[in-house]
Amino acid sequence: MMSHPVPQCQQVYKQNKPVCNQHNGEALTITEAAQRLHASTRTVYRMINSGELKAYRLGKRATIRIKACDIDAALTPIKTVADVLGQVA
Fold this sequence. Notes:
- The structure is a single chain.
- With about 90 residues, the chain is α+β, with helices and mostly antiparallel strands.
- About 40% of the residues lie in helices and about 10% in strands.
- Strand 2 and strand 3 (about 65) form a beta hairpin.
- Helix 1 (about 10-15) packs across helix 4 and helix 2 crosses helix 3 (about 40-50).
- It is elongated and about 50 Å long.
- The protein starts with 7 loop residues before the first helix and ends with a helix.
């Protein structure tokens, strides 16, 4: 069965470790997160509200930041027909 490589940061995230060394703690704005996901800012807000994406409030202001590692962890690979049938493409 062909398996998709899991990014290191996703492995760290799933083990509930707070720090991901791959991105060096990079914190992104909503706009930057949307660009990285190739999605709209509205989609990023929806992902935050649904719990799919972790977000952090910075200080007393309404500034929201998203860790780059959390973005990578939120992305899940889809299974292809080859994966389901156990064939290597």
